[in-house]
């Protein structure tokens, strides 16, 4: 069975004002306060495209090596729904602002500039409340070619896209706030050459839900096909355990797309391209490469690079061993912060950096790092004090200690000479018994091996 997965992502842009009117974009406690005749679709009101939203769209297109349309068009997509005051949504259709962009080797067919709908709140008694603060917020609709073949691949591509818009600073891309919404379509066919029937899945609120829903749907469709049945083209909803039918899919002609007569063709000039380029700094895939070249292991480099906050934290500390810093950041610090319900912003990176420097100079033992992070995060002890209180490695004449031990244990030395390398552990253990926490076990082991070889 050959699954084909397509993704459609809606990203809310964090411009100052809405897509076609001067209403502010933001988070409001009161409903219907950021509204005007244009976004409420009063008769005679005229939409004017937001230049910043255009530049944001261009920056994504350029960052993902897409083809920019120097002339694109707005269309009316007609459908009746309470959250749509005009009875249509202004979007793009025949010529989108960006075509054929790429992320992690996967093709994005088109990026459309469009507007948000209002937010509807369904009450238990059947009443629907509408909040038009959201109506008209600029939106990017990012449509992937159905060339993704597994839930893991879908998740990876989506994380990369989320990370990209955050790096560009064009969206918070917070899934919980609805700033980054994903619809998925899945089809399965018995051969690579033919196409199966496409099923769309909605109501996916997390990366986990997306991956689980895709996996479920591939299995469901494969079973139907193998049983000789036919998959029905429909929209299904993910309920956390399985997909269930929602409504039959509207075909494109139902939307009666036609050119928006109130907006002239959208022209992209050189100055807009230049402004968009300014937003493109070092992108996550470039960061990943740089981290790897610094000696950070591949898996850690990826985790850090594709998380804007982690990468900013990582970059803020220089002059320490990047590999060790990456390991502590991802494997220790983030984990402890999560346990305590804190964020990275609450962590004293500079203080930790000073401690790390002392460890690297050999002034403090490495095993103290974990203890210090624990005390800092859970007990609020500042790193300054932790550095003062750190047990200092004592000056020990390790060589003569080992010499004496070797002299007193001739049988063990004999075993070593016969090839029993495990004896090293015996000697290290003897030394560490008295010096635990005062000396680095690795150093002890090195001296023991050296002395045994010499004896
Ligand atoms: Zn408005």
Q: How would you describe this structure to a colleague?
A:
The mean pLDDT is 93. The chain starts with a strand and ends with a helix. Helix 2 (151-168) runs antiparallel to helix 3, helix 9 packs parallel to helix 11 (383-389) and helix 14 crosses helix 15 (441-454). The strands form four sheets. The chain has a nine-stranded mixed sheet with strand order 2-6-7-10-1-11-12-13-14. Strands 5-4-15 form a three-stranded antiparallel sheet, with no helix packed on it. Strands 3-16 form a two-stranded antiparallel sheet. The chain folds into three domains: 2-276, no CATH class; 282-389, no CATH class; 398-454, Arc Repressor Mutant, subunit A. It is α+β, with helices and mostly antiparallel strands. It has helices spanning 51-63, 151-168, 207-226, 270-278, 284-293, 298-305, 308-316, 322-340, 349-360, 368-379, 383-389, 398-408, 410-417, 423-435, 441-454, and strands spanning 2-12, 67-68, 71-72, 74-78, 88-92, 98-103, 106-115, 119-122, 128-131, 138-144, 180-189, 199-202, 234-238, 243-247, 258-259, 266-267. The protein has 15 helices and 16 strands. It is 40% helix and 18% strand. Zinc ion (ZN) is lined by residues 18, 21, 23, 35-36, 38-39, 136.
Produce a short descriptive summary.
This protein has 455 residues and is of the alpha+beta class. The strands form 4 sheets. A 9-stranded mixed sheet has the order 2-6-7-10-1-11-12-13-14. Strands 5-4-15 form a 3-stranded antiparallel sheet, with no helix packed on it. Strands 3-16 form a two-stranded antiparallel sheet. The protein has helices at residues 51-63, 151-168, 207-226, 270-278, 284-293, 298-305, 308-316, 322-340, 349-360, 368-379, 383-389, 398-408, 410-417, 423-435, 441-454; strands at residues 2-12, 67-68, 71-72, 74-78, 88-92, 98-103, 106-115, 119-122, 128-131, 138-144, 180-189, 199-202, 234-238, 243-247, 258-259, 266-267.
